[in-house]
Amino acid sequence: MDLLTLALLLFVAGVILGLAEVFIPSGGVLAVLSVAAFVCSVVCAFKVGPGWGIGITLATPIVMLVVVIKGLNIFPKTRIGRKMILQVPEEDDPPSAGIAAGSDGNPASSELVGQVGVARSVLRPSGSAQIGNRRCTVVTLGGYISEGTEVRVVEVRGNRIVVEPAG
Q1: Whole-number pLDDT of residue 100
Q2: CATH architecture of the domain with residue range 97-165
Q3: pTM higher than 0.85, yes or no?
């Protein structure tokens, strides 16, 4: 096997090892092997001639940049990638029941806004209130509200119910 063939095989091995590093959690072992393959490829290419050496030296970072970027674009679509990466919900996806209704069983926002209830604890600025027949965790707009004060729901953001004094 001549040196040019060896240089090209080592270059291809470096690309494959670099791509494998994106998909296989190796703690950097595959990345080190990839760099070693590229270095050996450049050395063999320079022994063939300076043109080959310079060509492979310039091609190495460009090819690896493209391979890593493409690998990182493909990775979230793989089975392992889908398990490792948290998916962002779509804009038109309805929120899950745990978020819209709150983990304590609070009703959805359309039912609560405008309703009046009673603070069951001191709200400074968070605490609990009885709204309808449900006890909810609420927050104020920043002020202090004492226990027993009537409160009105002004806004619901996710599982956060914002109230103000009703009077």
Answers
A1: 43
A2: Beta Barrel (2.40)
A3: no
